[in-house]
Amino acid sequence: MTRYRALADELAHSIRTGVFRPGERLPSVRQTCAARRLSPATVFQAYYLLEEQGLVESRPRSGYYVASHPPARLPEPETPSRPDGDSRTLDVSALVFEVQQSAMYRDLVPFGSAFPSPLLFPLPRLGRALAASAVELDPWCTVDDLTPGHAGLRRQISQRYLVDGIAVAADEIVITNGALEALNLSIAAVTRPGDAVLVESPCFYAALQTLERNGLRAVEVPTHPRDGVDLDALETAIKRHAPRACWLMPTFQNPLGATMPEPAKRALVELLAVHDIALIEDDVYAELHFGRERSLPAKAFDRDGRVLHCSSFSKCLAPGYRIGWVAAGRHRQAIARLKLTGTLNTNVPAQLAIARYLERGGYERHLRRLRAALATQQAQYLDAIARHFPEGVRVTRPQGGYFLWLELPPGSDALRLHRQALEHGISLAPGPIFSARREFGTGLRLNVGHPLDERADAALRTLGVLVARA
Amino acid sequence: MTRYRALADELAHSIRTGVFRPGERLPSVRQTCAARRLSPATVFQAYYLLEEQGLVESRPRSGYYVASHPPARLPEPETPSRPDGDSRTLDVSALVFEVQQSAMYRDLVPFGSAFPSPLLFPLPRLGRALAASAVELDPWCTVDDLTPGHAGLRRQISQRYLVDGIAVAADEIVITNGALEALNLSIAAVTRPGDAVLVESPCFYAALQTLERNGLRAVEVPTHPRDGVDLDALETAIKRHAPRACWLMPTFQNPLGATMPEPAKRALVELLAVHDIALIEDDVYAELHFGRERSLPAKAFDRDGRVLHCSSFSKCLAPGYRIGWVAAGRHRQAIARLKLTGTLNTNVPAQLAIARYLERGGYERHLRRLRAALATQQAQYLDAIARHFPEGVRVTRPQGGYFLWLELPPGSDALRLHRQALEHGISLAPGPIFSARREFGTGLRLNVGHPLDERADAALRTLGVLVARA
């Protein structure tokens, strides 16, 4: 499975980036077999997959060509959000719970879910690593691996930063119960109740819930659905509200899928340095890039330890293991102390298991497979949405992750659609849960992390009808 | 090992409770072998152990007798604490960190540690349960077992309550990252910044740290070193400060080891019901009772869901697994929501592993062994302390857990002793870290959860010299 998917992914990338143009002939199966030392079956499988995705078409007795009519696509949203610029205390948590609670049942079509399909992860192999770690466990680990966490795991994480040229020492890293604890600890370390915190608009609802719980004031900053937060608007907000921190997702933002270009990330960190503001960088989708290169995190441009880079293995390797971390820069000690008084420590066997898995290799191979699967699913969903949804709908095309953001036609009501969809056994994540002012009434986050099977396709058709009717 | 320890434990209990009195002859080895269907080797081993503990003496050609001069004992502390009755915001956290950080090295004699020896736990057998759970993991568990947690584990915990006649439904239980998260969630659920919270005096330093972090005011209530918190004083404090919650450890209190008699626990819950105050009950040492019967928790007397009963498997079964829970009564939904926005979920394979371990049986056998080991160690430490420490020292004799509380002679300085001891490679938990006002300058919590080997005995001798010199 790996080989043909890898080949299909590579060719899809070449098509998307214009190396092969619409109507051009792809290398023949025979050529490709010889050049790549692959079997004909593998190459055929790759071409079939590309055909299924609508990227190539076969012409009898002639070979494979880049599709001249690429799959139907709806336009992308192009308008940045326009929040009012005020700061406010929050009361969104109850709405978020109401919506999210309804998405937690296994028998719903999980378009509103925050998680990709667990079947995409190497859980059996991880399980064997966990089994070996558990059986060989040195009892003293339960004492030695107290916060900041298992030294071997922190070293492995540090090495992964280094591959991207980012210097993060192992002793700057604190292991946490998933990224969410890392983010919560970060907010607690750099703010006091009443402080202003800048967030994207729309933004991840858990950020709003954390600000609400900590008595902080949220300032929503205009955000472009493809390029992320607007730096001019961010500077204006800084001058007006003197915030203590920004909580941002510069890469594959939740819910938009937006990614700030690297120069913008660099400028962001420089701007925050001038005003001495901490950046809490939520980077949990970083590994899920469809292109060859990852987009560097803002942390890569941090010169004075002001970026608290939060991530985890939950979305890219080990769902349910609850192993995350924060590369905490100058806030390292504060974070470790908050962790010690909050949850004391993180599950030791799981830390050892992930360290062992990373040591033994195979992570890159898994990631390539996962990225290819998510890219394929995204293409299939985009195609199905174009087929089933009415004109006037816009949809993003993120370069990674597993969320699409839809803008429904003016006058639509995403919260109403969410309730109607539930009656059809479909969960949704409606726009208002991503906003301090319950804006984005026509917005919708759609999870494409689950295969587009018949049930999902039928669910999209149902949604299309509901949207058209409204 | 099990059998002779069990026999020794039973005989030690009979001696301590006066069934056999000083100077009386114990049943002969032959009688005991026949009555218990044990081998002579097993019975001899039990008698040797009791001899080592100073509880029995052998008389040549006559048999074993209850020691006529029972092991030397220092007097118990008898005076309840006398806090000033005021409420105050806190700034003890830095001191606690300074002291606790110094205790985290494996090569120190761990008298200041909060953990018992990890060698006391069935980590290999647990590891096999974890291995089986990990390898057989249903991928959808990572979604289904989201907070409040794995249904099978919550059912097992509910059944354990039922054995003691306590009705706690599985759906009242929220699984947490150890008891500390349970306690933190409980405080967050029932208080707002500025509220007063009643605590024991002295009390567990993590309680003080949590109150400090949440901007709460601590009111320390007089506490007896054997019988726990003083209910009259508690009522006075309620009337004066109108607290929102009490955070108490009614059983094997940390650091005193005190246990409130059951009628006092009942009266406590009734008193709190009259004033509509929540009880956060930290009950992590409950399973570590030396006597045959456990002391019921205050939760047993809860009629209206006001007790948040917090516990974990960290001190009795699975250190490092970070599996705790809160039986949250009427605060169940609030707790689950705080957990969802705080750490989202608890490690799924560990939840499954503990559920599997509990299902397969063997937990009771492990607990009997653990209790016997801790009881034996306590007796050995008490004996060694009596030999090595000067007159004027008092020491508690808790009926469970693995802490002793020492009161040094007037004028001693436990913080200074802690620093001196560190230079000798010995960690200590000095009294002031258990107090909002850094009181208990002559108090010392001593961990007896590690075997009294030669190094530990030498360390006690060193401490005795340092105390005598001061």
Counting H and I runs of at least 4 residues, what is the number of helices of chain A? 16
Q: Radius of gyration of chain A, Cα only, in angstroms?
A: 23 Å
* Greatest chain-chain contact: A-B, 61 and 61 residues
- The name of the CATH superfamily of the largest domain in chain A reads Type I PLP-dependent aspartate aminotransferase-like (Major domain)
Strand content of chain A: 5-15%
Count of the domains of chain A: 3
**What oligomeric state do the depicted chains represent?**
homodimer
Give the CATH architecture of the largest domain in chain A. Answer: 3-Layer(aba) Sandwich
Uncertain spans of chain A: none
Mean pLDDT of chain A comes to 92
- Main sheet makeup of chain A: 9 strands, mixed
CATH class of the largest domain in chain A: Alpha Beta
Question: What is the element layout, followed by pairings?
Answer:
Two copies of one chain form a homodimer.
Chain A: H1 2-16, H2 29-36, H3 40-52, E1 56-59, E2 63-66, E3 87-88, H4 93-102, H5 123-135, H6 141-144, H7 151-163, E4 173-176, H8 178-190, E5 196-201, H9 205-213, E6 217-224, E7 228-229, H10 231-241, E8 245-248, H11 262-274, E9 278-282, E10 307-312, E11 324-327, H12 332-342, H13 348-360, H14 363-388, E12 394-395, E13 403-407, H15 414-423, E14 429-430, E15 443-447, H16 454-469
Parallel strand pairs in A: 5-6, 5-8, 8-9, 9-10
Antiparallel strand pairs in A: 1-2, 3-6, 4-11, 6-7, 10-11, 12-13, 13-15, 14-15
